[in-house]
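To close the section, here is one more complete example, presented without commentary so you can practise reading it yourself. The ligand is manganese (II) ion.
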Amino acid sequence: MKNKKTYFASDFHLGVPGKKESIVRELKIIKWLDEIKVDAKDIFLVGDIFDFWFEWNKVVPKGNYRLLSKLSEISEIGIKIHFLKGNHDLWTFGYLKEVGLKVYDSDIKIEIDGKKFLISHGDGIGNFDFKYKILKKTIFENKFFQKLFSILHPDISIKIANYFSKKSRLKKFKHDDNFYLKKLKKYCNKVLEKEKIDYFIFGHYHIVSETKINDISKLFILGDWVNHNSYLQLYEGKPEMKKFNYQ
Ligand SMILES: [Mn+2]
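Output:
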C-alpha cells in the first residue's frame, strides 16, 4: 500500500477572503497532506493554490509559510509534487522549485498506472471566454508587463493585484455549471479526435464533477478548497473523487 497513490487537487485560493479564513483553510490542507503523505507517490496541484502570487528577483510574498514548509517536508521524503500554474498564481519564477515543487507552465500529458492523463488548470481552454484568452496572452503572460509590475514597490503592487483578483472572482462565473461542463466536454471530444486520453483533469471552475466523455474517457473537475475540500485519488489506475472530512 505504501506510496502507491496519486492525488490531484486545485484551487486552494490561499489569501482570500481574508487572513483569518485563509489560515483555517491552510491548516485544513496541511492536515490533508499529512493524511495522504502516508501512501502518496505523486501529488498534482492543479493551479490557483495561491489567490495571488508574484515573485520579484529577490522578494517573495509574505504568508503561506505553513503550506510551503509542509510541501517541502513531503518532497524531501520522496513524494513528487507537481505544481501547475493557475491564472491566479502564474508569476512564479524559481522560488517554488526551491521548495521542492516541479513547476509547469502549461498543460501536462502524462501516463500514470498505464492510463493517459491530460492535466490542465483549465482556464482559457475550449471554445469560449475569448476576451480572457486575449488578456492572458497580451498582459498576464507578457514579459514586459511583468517587468513593469515588478518595478513597483511590492506593498503597492500586491494591493493592486488583490483588487483585481477580487474583481475577477466576482465576475468569474458568468454562466452556470452546465454551460462550462458542456464546453469542456466539447473540448475533450476534440482532443480525443487526435489522441487517446483516458482521464482529463481540470481545476479552475470550482465545480466537483465526474463526467463520462465516451466508453473509455472521463473528465474530472477537481472542485476547490474554498467550499468543497475535494480531491481526486488514483489507485492502480482507478480514479475516485473524494472529499476531505476535517474535524
Ligand atoms: Mn483559476
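Once you have examined the C-alpha cells, check your reading against these statements. The chain has one domain: 5-243. The pocket of manganese (II) ion is lined by residues 47-48, 86-88, 121, 123, 204 (CB under 6 Å).
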